[in-house]
Amino acid sequence: MNFFGEVSGAISIGFVSFNLTPERLNILVKNVMETSQSMSAKLGYNGSEHTKAMNRSF
Predict the structure, then answer these.
(1) With the C-alpha atoms ordered 1, 56, 38, 24, is the resulting torsion angle positive or negative?
(2) 23 against 3, higher pLDDT
(3) pLDDT tens-place string over residues 10-41
(4) d(Cα 26, Cα 38) in Å, to the nearest integer?
(5) Is the dihedral of CA 27, 30, 34, 39 positive or negative?
(6) Distance CA 7, CA 58 (A)
(7) Which residues contact 16 (CB under 8 A, 6 or more apart)?
């Protein structure tokens, strides 16, 4: 998200599903969430209340 709280980008990952363990999935989700938060901060987003639900555990 950008300074105005608007979606302004996307992140995707690729992986081979036959060897995806629950532990590896959690690592990938964590990495994507951290990357998205870093990108949003660089775009000026400061994390309003309505997005805190995104920080839940999977």
Answers:
(1) negative
(2) 23
(3) 888 888 888 899 999 999 999 999 998 898 88
(4) 18
(5) positive
(6) 22
(7) none
